[in-house]
Amino acid sequence: MVLYVIGLGLADEKDITVKGLEAVKTCERVYLEAYTSILTVPKERLEALYERPVVIADREMVESEADEILRDADKINVAFLVVGDPFGATTHTDLVMRAKELSIPVIPIHNASIMNAVGCCGLQLYNYGQTISIVFFTDSWRPDSFYDKIKQNRAIGLHTLCLLDIKVKEQSIENMARGRKIYEPPRYMTVNQAVEQLIDIEETRQEGVYTKDTIAVGLARVGCPDQTIIAGTLEELVTADFGGPLHSLVIAGHMHFLEADLVRTYAVNPETFNRHAVILDH
Amino acid sequence: MVLYVIGLGLADEKDITVKGLEAVKTCERVYLEAYTSILTVPKERLEALYERPVVIADREMVESEADEILRDADKINVAFLVVGDPFGATTHTDLVMRAKELSIPVIPIHNASIMNAVGCCGLQLYNYGQTISIVFFTDSWRPDSFYDKIKQNRAIGLHTLCLLDIKVKEQSIENMARGRKIYEPPRYMTVNQAVEQLIDIEETRQEGVYTKDTIAVGLARVGCPDQTIIAGTLEELVTADFGGPLHSLVIAGHMHFLEADLVRTYAVNPETFNRHAVILDH
Q1: What value of ipTM does the predicted structure carry?
Q2: Total beta-carbon pairs less than 8 A apart between chain A and chain B
Q3: Which residues are S-adenosyl-L-methionine-binding (chains A, B) (predicted)?
Q4: What is the largest CA-CA distance in chain A?
């Protein structure tokens, strides 16, 4: 039959499309990918609307048990649910490729993801450059290859969407060494943490790609009733309160004045916004 | 009450989200923006599922009759339906700003748009640069400012999503001059036309931004059962058959080998693909 890869959108169980809901109700087994993004509701809410039990699929399961996920999918329908759009993360590619090897048709059902929903902050989607990922720094590991990408984007005036790190089902080094399957509580990077790391990297690299006064926009829980959007200088965003996860960040490039008019409505301080925003009048 | 701005997704009436469907059913008046994109089904299909009459809103109506669209929206709910995601096009900004002036709450409901669904071609979304629009050339008007943007993207190895022109409810110069409200049949730019114009502009500008051998991916009717994806050199795509609208095009930048593995499955000719693709092995 079919492997449906169904985008769930951004917020809750009702962000699935009518087409996606009809598809999931034809499936004998339903998996939810739960390690690259999260919804704001527990899986029981999904199960109630979809009228199906939902199995949480962690990274280990998707990467090492693809054949179990695809079991009998030549005879029955299987659904693999993905927060956002099915093509937002690379991690599902292996599953899709494996299905193709087994001659199981794969039908994706699209949905909103942060990659397009970020348009709600007022910065137009066609003015974004490459998207970057910011991961949690540790004492010994401070990956900063994103700095060069921000540099490239800003050199030509483009905005930069920053996806912020998610740590789900991580083991401590001690537990990993001892082979104990004990997991740390999930961690979701906040806009505040991301902005601190960005300021930190600029202080190390000193290439003047951005400053503490560069305008950025933080977003939290996009698509939820309590969605929060706050614009300000990087320094202002260090202390802005965005509430719970998920958070995203956009470093603004040059803004068309219509973009600036919208973003300003979210500014911590319209005066500092006007002082530091790079606004084009055409 | 509320102005809902509801994304419809890409293909047909069932691409609306469950949340969007519930919202539209609370609305006394429902408008469909029908000039920046189209679905593949007539409005009657929408009306049947949404159980509401749907008024087609053309550009003139949205731009000059915002107050009529918003009439009584302090007392009733009004829905403004948008193909794709609500924030995909700038043209609705005026309506949203007008609603805010009138203190009418605006609730957007997100959905897939070509800006994120294009990930289905195998080129990863985070490797795209700025998006460009290619409009129909006329004898006297050949706008090519997109050429510089492609140049900027390609200089740093990024892919370029090209949105292709749509002409709906256009008047001929003669009819316009005579004040006759007679409209030309709608026109949708094909991948073939876009690629011809791109080759044409390179021949004029001669800055070597791309060649006839540059690899690109054409997409048609993304999200529909008859979705078509074809990869090849620009020259190969001049004659590839994509069928009916809507079409989009991606000019490939540097490809990670995993991206190339996926895109190659859509290639007109895997041999020319391998010869001309720029593939990174890390």
Answers
A1: 0.94
A2: 143
A3: 10, 85, 88, 113-114, 164, 222, 247
A4: 63
